[in-house]
Amino acid sequence: MKFFHTSSFIFHILSFILHPSYFIFQKMGIELKQYAKLNQSLVMTPHLQMAVKLLQLSRLELMELIHHELEENPALDDVTDEVFPEDDQESDPFEMTDDTSSEKEVTIEERILDWSNYIDEYNAAEKISFETEERDAPKFEAFLSTRKSLTDHLLWQLMMTSPTDEEKQIGSLIVGNLSKNGYLDIPVEETARLSESSPEKVEEVLSLLQTFDPVGICSRNLTECLLTQAWRLGFDDSIVTDIIENHLHHLENKNYNAICRELKANLEEVIFAVNVIKGLDPRPGNQFSDEDPQYIEPDIYVYKLEDDFMIVLNDDGMPKLRVSPLYHNLVEKDGDLTESVREYMQEKLRSAAWLIKSIHQRQKTIYRVMDSIMKFQRDFFEKGITHLKPMVLRDVAEDIDMHESTISRVTTNKYVYTPQGIFELKYFFNSSINRMNGGETISSTSVQEKIKQIIESEDPRKPHSDDKISRMLEKENIDIARRTVAKYREMMKILPSNKRRQV
Q: Three-state SS across 193-250?
């Protein structure tokens, strides 16, 4: 018994050393328990994610998404081309009217049989039509037009010269290594190694390709490109070729006097040669560019009517959606549906209804944002860009009681047609520049427009420097440094004064 107490005492001592909280746990009786606790958290549901996604889509992207949903969701109908009675033109797209009371009730099986007969008849008619018209009907592929690429254009010209197999291989390598501007990107030695030919043979084929259309193609640098075009125009061994070979750096800086001194020519001859060089194409491959043009379709139109402006959302070509009454009636009335089919159809109905609601909410939000911009920038819509006021996203967010992130999504990839032109909604948000003697600030976009107007009205023979433009803006009470003028000028892709000067 004494041994037991001694062992128990030693066990407690060791437990205390290894676990200091041993006695505390023994005293407090800690154990695992489950508790119910309420907690609030922000969760992005799939429907909310769709609404956010729709808000930041452009008009073209929205139409593409709608057409995709029309293909994927059978419970979604496009009623754009349907004609409704006058009493139903303003009906709610979510309202499901019951017009089947006077019609004969049919079961699911009967509907399926009707559709089966219709499909069989359609296929039979289609087969007869193809059998009778296939011989005489032209192929649709004959009407498809494709843009000719630079590679196809050059290889076609190469095949017209009846090349040998070696020349075909070398020509294909050269054409395949051209940049989008039409310049050769790899050296002749590399082409010779890849084609297992001599550098002399590669030079021969390259010289042949440089005679092809467009003029100046397959050049290795700008000088060679311009020289090829000058030779084609008949300016061999002239002042034009001399300037291209040796004085392009003076031509870039418009230092015509230096060219006159080095060539010992008069100014009239130099200016004539410069005008010839200006007419040459430094990027001969650009005319075969395969980049599709990006057309802008305004999401909003702003028209001026007398002394007020009217905002109109662009709905041209936008499908008019509604929830399919057929699917709604099947879910509500037919009791022959299995549970899985009913759940599937209900999910599609909810998805269609939410898409329609999200599109309506998107259009409403865009209208509210544009209306708020109109209140802040009314002078711009009436008088022009120079009257654009400084504005940030917070101004519109506070005006219409929305978050800044929502305003940012609304103004992304959205364009508005105004009496002053077409602008992105982001264009109306810009930083401010202080006045010299206090007073109302001016927007940076307005300052850029003023700089552009000053440069356009300057004497081409004596263009204004950035410092002089800064002093001219100071006279208009605009506090702007010379380096800021240079930054805005570069943003507008305007050359400095030494490169704008004309003789």
A: HHHCCCHHHHHHHHHHHCCCCCCCCCECCHHHHHHHHHHHCCCCCCHHHHHHHHCHHH
184 phi/psi in degrees, rounded to 5: -80, 125
Residue 319 vs residues 215, 315, 349: alpha-carbon distances, Å: 48, 8, 18
The per-residue pLDDT for 372 is 93
Residue 65 dihedral angles phi and psi, to the nearest 5° = -65, -40
Q: What pLDDT, on a 0 to 100 scale, did the predictor assign at position 90?
A: 44
Instruction: For residues 159 and 117, give the distance between their C-alpha atoms in angstroms, rounded to a whole number.
Output: 56
Q: Among all chains, which residue has been given the structure tokens 């640098």?
A: 221
Cα 500 to Cα 466: distance, rounded to the nearest angstrom: 12
Q: Which two tokens stand for residue 50?
A: 């769709």
List the 300-305 sheet strands across, edge first. Answer: 308-313, 300-305, 415-418, 421-424
Sign of CA dihedral 358, 360, 363, 367: negative
What is the C-alpha separation between 443 and 438, in angstroms, rounded?
14
For the record, the structure tokens of 291 come out as 């980049």
What are the extents of the domains in the chain?
150-288, 300-428, 432-500
Q: Taking Cα atoms as reference points, which of 161, 177, 253 lies closest to residue 212?
A: 161
Distance in angstroms (rounded) separating the CA atoms of residues 114 and 106: 11
Q: Any idea which architecture 432-500 has in CATH? A: Orthogonal Bundle (1.10)
Q: What is the pTM of this model?
A: 0.64
CA torsion angle 51 55 60 61 (round to 10): -50
- Per the document, the length of the chain is 503
77 Cβ contact partners less than 8 Å away, ≥ 6 residues apart: 321, 322, 323, 324
Rounded Cα gap, residues 471 and 478, in angstroms: 9
Other beta carbons within 10 angstroms of residue 461's beta carbon come to 8
Long-range contacts of 416-423 (CB under 8 A, 24+ apart): 416/298, 416/299, 416/300, 416/301, 416/302, 416/370, 417/298, 417/300, 417/301, 417/302, 418/302, 418/381, 419/302, 419/303, 419/304, 419/381, 420/380, 420/381, 420/384, 420/385, 422/296, 422/298
Mean pLDDT of 344-364: 87
Say if CB 424 and CB 435 are below 8 A apart.
no
Mean pLDDT of the region 408-427: 90
Q: Give the tens place of pLDDT for each residue, 116-169.
A: 444 454 444 444 444 444 455 555 555 555 677 888 899 999 999 989 999 999
Instruction: Name the least confident of 110-119, 132-141, 314-323, 444-453.
Output: 110-119
